[in-house]
Amino acid sequence: MTRARGPLVALAAAALAIVLFTVPIDPAWIEHGYADGIYAGLATTFVPLVNRLPFALGDLLIALVALGFAAFAIRCARRGGALAIVTIGLGLVTLGGALGIWFQCAWGLNYRRAPIALRVDYDGARVNEAAVTAFARTIVAGLNDTAPAAHAEMARAGDADLAVLQADFLPVVARLGDTYAVRVSTPKTSFLLDRWFQIAGIGGMFDPFAYETILNSAFLPFERPFALAHEWGHVAGFTAEGDANLIAALTCLRSRDPLIRYSGFFWTYGYLPGDITARYPVSALVRADEAAAQARFLRYYQPRLYDLQWRAYDTYLHANRVTSGVRSYGEFTSLLVGTPLDSQGLPRTSRT
């Protein structure tokens, strides 16, 4: 980067990133031109390619970017003086702008899509105490009834069949508005990020820079199907965490596979109001799974780092138009209660 061009490149990168984050864009173009157009083309091209890699591509990208910028900073520092500091600062601005542009073009514009609550036949008036109580009773009954078969499947196969999970998932995102053949990503473990996921209580992520899904390797078999379906919701271009949780719940609860269905009941139960679920006891088998999941979480839990991570992520979500921040994770239960489902377990919309 020359002295003359450095400030201009940094300014241009930062300005374009800000424009992509802030300038209003026609919602119809976001849905049809970007989500079902540009993004669909990128995802259906790169997700299958990255699936073939036996390692997390994101780890390699992090290492390359970090090492590249470190080499740039060292070269600047050797020149000494205030100009070196300015040049490094301009390099940081350029890198930040470039990553922001990449993020928005590769996936981030999906934050402009209409939320699922506006896509389905949701009515907040249906979410009353009686309906929530009935829903909680149904979830607890399903949890207790499915637990033995789910444990038998875990003993026999270890994990849920991902092909079955995919077959349960694809009709959900098609019903919610994706008009292309969504490709799901193979779950991977990040060498660089896995321990941080465990310490900070992160279940997983869809990496839009690498087009791959990373899951917390410590997850137990009955936790994985819901967590993976959640991340696949992001792969399908649904960005809000509550929407991804709704997609995961619909995917799992409509499944005929006991372990997948149990995972849906287990996670949904965890988001229900405690004063309601306390009225309906779960079985000893379910209580043992709750204890195992809690022990898995506490094995790595670091309170300060956990709080730091979730405060930072709350800020990120607000910056990307998710007004409820991290509280959005739990909003899917209201959507489940307030949205009628058809005979296939899919949400009814104005078209169905």
Written account of the structure:
This protein is mostly helical. The chain has two domains: 5-112, no CATH class; 116-338, no CATH class. Helices cover 64% and strands 3% of the residues. It has 14 helices and three strands. It has helices at residues 5-22, 27-51, 57-79, 81-106, 129-157, 162-175, 194-200, 224-235, 241-253, 258-271, 274-277, 284-298, 303-319, 332-338, and strands at residues 187-188, 204-207, 212-215. The chain has a three-stranded mixed sheet. Strand 2 and strand 3 (212-215) form a beta hairpin. Helix 6 (162-175) packs across helix 9. The longest helix is centred in the middle third of the chain and has 29 residues, at 129-157. The termini are far apart. The mean pLDDT is 91.
| Rg of Cα set | 22 Å
Category by helix and strand content: mainly alpha
Q: Residue-averaged pLDDT, rounded?
A: 91
Number of domains: 2
Question: What sort of overall outline do the alpha carbons produce when their principal axes are compared?
Answer: globular
Number of strands: 3
Question: Helix and strand layout, with pairings?
Answer:
Elements: H1 5-22, H2 27-51, H3 57-79, H4 81-106, H5 129-157, H6 162-175, E1 187-188, H7 194-200, E2 204-207, E3 212-215, H8 224-235, H9 241-253, H10 258-271, H11 274-277, H12 284-298, H13 303-319, H14 332-338
Helix pairs in contact: 1-4, 3-4, 5-10, 6-8, 6-9, 8-9, 9-10, 9-14
